[in-house]
Design brief:
alpha+beta, Glutaredoxin, Jelly Rolls, four-stranded mixed β-sheet, four-stranded antiparallel β-sheet, 10 helices, 14 strands
């Protein structure tokens, strides 16, 4: 008896890029790998500057964006294992099985509770927030994913649901200076909505992160309907400016050990949680070299101020570390 094998459903993976997008090279490479390893998946590259606006799915605001059939699955270039896990159901019988890890994706039929994470919408009722939720799109980014670059034109409000995001600037030599480290509940991209852009900044996932996105049009509609959101937006922008001025003062007046101490105290927070960052991450945040940051952290460990593990820094004596942070040059 001949067994009839039903062919796997053919899926289409569309990768939206732009000609001026510096971070789209990696996206093209991932798309090429999908074409090699998943022959049953149709892969297409679409330039946002060329394709008709009406043919772009809702939720595609910037490049690169990965869309599986009609669902946005990643803003920015996803990790290979996560992408392969999503493509696995579309694999034909006889194709080699790539090594993958599983991940939980939110049920698209259920509203993602993004707004409840942010102070921006705290004056609204639950029903009002649930209505606004319908205009949001969720995206998951692996640590190290750069999902916003200065040359990208998509105007969108990001709401950080989970993880941590660094906003940074980069020199032509590739040296980074982190200007803000954002925690869950933070919003960013709001400067672009105010007509000022993100001031030449990159946005990078410092940890595996979940982001919720709203288009400029949707945010403007919310602001017009709920003026309290506009007031909270101004508060957030003022707070971000205060944080930036404080960092600038630290660079001007504090030694590198004091800047590192202040950074560790701020990141660990009042509950003194471990800081899950590399020495390079800390160096980028205080504007120094990795070797310098490593040397100072080792000295702090020798003084029993911190404990060091791979990708983990634990503050063990906040009082004495605060004395180091208060030192000025």
């Amino acid at each position: 008896m001949t067994r009839t094998v039903a062919p796997a459903r053919t899926a289409t993976l569309t990768v939206y890029v732009e000609e001026s997008c510096t971070s789209c090279g990696a996206a093209r490479e991932v798309a090429a790998r999908v074409a090699r390893e998943f022959p049953s998946v149709h892969v297409r590259i679409a330039d946002l500057g060329v394709v008709p606006l009406g043919s772009v799915p809702e939720g595609v605001f910037a490049a690169p964006t990965f869309v599986l059939d009609d669902e946005v699955i990643s803003l920015g270039t996803p990790g290979w294992e996560e992408l392969a896990a999503l493509l696995q159901p579309h694999q034909s019988e006889g194709e080699p099985t790539p090594m993958t890890t599983s991940r939980h994706l939110p049920d698209a039929a259920q509203p993602t509770p993004c707004l409840f994470e942010s102070e921006l919408f705290r004056d609204l009722g639950e029903q009002e927030m649930m209505e606004i939720e319908r205009s949001t799109t969720m995206s998951m980014c692996k640590r190290g994913t750069v999902f916003f670059a200065p040359d990208e034109t998509g105007e969108v409000l990001f709401i950080l649901k989970q993880g941590r995001v660094n906003l940074y600037r980069a020199t032509e030599e590739g040296k980074k200076l982190v200007t803000a480290t954002l925690e869950p509940g933070s919003i960013f991209g709001e400067m672009s909505l105010a007509g000022q852009g993100m001031s030449g900044s990159f946005a990078e996932a410092a940890e595996d992160s979940t982001l919720c996105l709203m288009s400029k049009t949707d945010v403007q509609a919310v602001i017009q309907r709920y003026p309290s959101v506009a007031l909270r937006l101004l508060e957030e922008m003022a707070k971000r400016l205060d944080d930036a001025e404080e960092r600038l003062a630290d660079v001007a007046y504090k030694s590198v050990p004091a800047r590192i101490a202040a950074t560790l105290l701020r990141l660990s927070g009042p509950d003194n949680k471990p800081v899950n960052m590399s020495h390079q991450d800390i160096a980028d945040m205080v504007g120094t070299y990795r070797e310098t940051a490593t040397r100072i952290l080792n000295e702090m460990r020798g003084d029993e101020l911190v404990e060091l593990q791979r990708m983990r820094i634990a503050v063990t004596d906040r009082r004495r570390l605060a004395l180091v942070a208060a030192e000025v040059v």
